[in-house]
Design goal:
Elements lengths: L4 H33 L15 H37 L4 H12 L4 H8 L3 H22 L6
């Protein structure tokens, strides 16, 4: 399995970046939820005549900053998927290309990849090894290091 470490690392970059984007989306939702808790109480007695406006401003600033960081990661994700797609497109076997696209760009489970390709899961894994071997050769020719 470690024979194709470089190819696996290369293809897995999009998946990992997607996970980081999902984590940032979750953090952003938590910030937005927190900002909704910082609302003014309507009705009832007033305890103070001054509101803590700066606290709400701080939350809004943090939300805007988180959105900017998220946008930057999404841009990197789109660029990375395009780079990986262009690399996959060079592989000579159309079945290997499709398998890698479904698994690493569409991020589908093995069961779904096999189903869409109308092949068994066992054959999907055999085809995956073949595709990784081709990709490993291509990356070695291009001088891509194993720590991509």
């Amino acid at each position: 399995m470690d024979d194709y470490r470089r190819a696996r690392a290369y293809l897995s970059r999009a998946y990992r970046l997607n996970q980081r984007i999902d984590a940032k989306l979750e953090q952003l939702m938590q910030l937005r939820s927190l900002s909704q808790r910082c609302t003014v109480a309507f009705g009832g007695e007033r305890v103070s005549h001054t509101r803590n406006v700066t606290s709400m401003e701080n939350v809004i600033v943090k939300i805007v900053e988180a959105e900017k960081r998220l946008d930057a990661q999404i841009d990197r994700f789109v660029d990375l998927k395009e780079e990986i797609q262009q690399t996959i497109d060079v592989l000579p076997d159309p079945d290997c290309r499709l398998l890698l696209e479904l698994r690493y760009l569409a991020m589908k489970r093995w069961m779904d990849v096999a189903g869409e390709m109308n092949i068994s899961r066992t054959y999907a894994h055999i085809l995956h090894e073949k595709a990784l071997a081709m990709l490993e050769t291509l990356l070695a020719e291009r001088g891509v290091n194993a720590d991509v």
